[in-house]
Amino acid sequence: METPLVVIAGRPNVGKSSLFNRLIGRRQALVADQPGLTRDRQEATCRIGGRMVRIADTAGLEEAPPESLSGRMRQGAATILEQADLILFVVDARAGILPPDAHFGTWLRRLGRPVLLVANKTEGRVGYANAVDAYSLGLGEPLLVSAEHGEGISSLMADIAAALPPPATKIRDEDVEEAEELTAAEDPGKPLKLVILGRPNAGKSTLVNRLLGEDRMLTGPEPGITRDAITLPLHDIEGRAYQLVDTAGLRRRARVQNEIEKMSTGASINAMRFAEVVVLVVDAVDGLHDQDLQIARLVEREGRAMVVALNKWDAVEDRDATRKAVSDRLERSLAQLKGIPVVTLSAVTGASVHKLLPAVRQVYATWNKRITTSALNRWFEDALGRHPPPNVSGRRLKLRYVTQATARPPTFVVFGTRAEGTPEDYRRYLVNELRNIFDLPGTPIRLDFRGTVNPYDDKD
C-alpha cells in the first residue's frame, strides 16, 4: 500500500520546518528566524496514529514572477501540494492573519485537497488571542500548536491520523515491526548512501535532477540555491537502490560568514560523514580548485569512497588539456586517494551521466573489499624483501606480519618489534604497494602499526 503524503505549506517564516522536525521526531530541516530559509522540499517518513506517513516540508508560498528564485520555489511547492493526501496550512498566530495567508488560503480551497489549518506560535496570550482570526480563512477550526515548544503536537498528530484517507488494506502490527527490522538490518538490498558534494554552482542539483529523471531540486544561475541536505530515493536501471543526498555548496571556511551558510555547511559535512560513497562535482570549465582538493581531503579523512564528476564537460574547449591538468593535479595533490575514478559528464545535456553510477558501484565494492591473511602476508614478505624496513635511532624495525582488521575503508594492522616507530615514508610505501597489488584505487587505506614486546630486545 502506498504511504500517504502530508505536505506542510504556508508563507515564509511561519514555522513550517520547526513543525516538520517535531512531527518526524528529529532535527532534519534547517531552522532559523529568517524568512525563506527552506528552498527545496524536505521529506521524511514517520509513524502517526500507528500508520507510516510521508511528511514533506516546502518552501514558503510567495507571490513572485515565475522566472525569479521565489517564483521557482513556489512552483516547486505547488507541484507537491497537488499530490498531497493532506495539507497542513500553517499560519503565524503571533503575527495574525496577513493578506498572503488569505490569498493562499483561497488558492488551497480551490485546489480541492483536504486541508488542516494549523495556527503556530500560540504560546503566550497574544498568540492564543490572535489564533481566532484564522477562522476568517474559511478552512475550518484552527489547530493551536507551538512547534518550537512542542505544545499541541500530540493533538495535531491525532487530527492528522483522523483526516488521512483510510488504508486500502489493514496492516498487522507485527508486519510493521518486521518491516522496520528489515530496514535497519545490514542486508545486501539496503540502499547505498551516496552524497553529492562540491563548491557552489558546480551543478550538483542539476546532476541530482538528471539522475532522478525529474526536476526535483531547485536549480538556476544563482550560486548557493541549495541550503539543506536533501535525501532522495533513487534506483538505477538494474533496480539497485541508492539513498541520494544533495548538499549545499562548500566554500572556503574564511568566506563562510553568515549564520545560514554556516548551518548549510554543517548539514553538508554531517551528510558526508554518514555517506558510503561521495561524488565530488567539479566545474570542468573552472578546473580543479584548491577548495575542491580541500573537500576531497575531508572525504578521505572521514574514510569515504569517492568519485570525481567533471561536470559541464560540454562547455570545455580543450578537453585533452583539461583532462590532463585534472589528472596531474589529483596525482600530485591527492596521493592518498591514488587512482580515484574521474567521470566526465554534462548534467545539463545528460551526456555520459549514465557512467556515473557504475563508477560509484565500483568504488563501493573496493571500499568493502576484504583480503585474506595468507594473501596479505605473501605480499608482505615480498614487499619487505624488495625494500627492507629502515633502522630507527640505530635500531632495526622487525615487521613480522599483517592482517586486515576491517573494511569500509580497508584497514590493515602491521605487527612487529618497534612497529609503531615505522617512518612515514615507509608507511606510504606499504600503502602504495597495497593499493597496486590488491587493486584498491580511489579508496582511503588505513594502515596501523602495533609493536610487540620482546624480552630480549635490550640485548640487540
Cα gyration radius (Å): 27 Å
Weakly predicted, low-confidence segments: 169-186
SS field, number of helical segments: 13
Q: H/E order of the elements?
A: EHEEHEHEHEHHEHEEHEHEHEHHEEHE
Task: Give the CATH class of the largest domain.
Answer: Alpha Beta
Name the structural class. Answer: alpha/beta
CATH fold type of the largest domain: Rossmann fold
Q: How many β-strands, per DSSP?
A: 15
The CATH homologous superfamily name of the largest domain equals: P-loop containing nucleotide triphosphate hydrolases
- How many discrete structural domains? 3
Q: How are the strands of the largest sheet arranged?
A: 2-3-1-4-5-6
Average pLDDT taken over every residue: 82
Keywords: GTP-binding, Nucleotide-binding, Repeat, Ribosome biogenesis
Family: Belongs to the TRAFAC class TrmE-Era-EngA-EngB-Septin-like GTPase superfamily. EngA (Der) GTPase family.
Binding site for GTP 1: 10-17, 57-61, 120-123
Organism: Acidisoma silvae
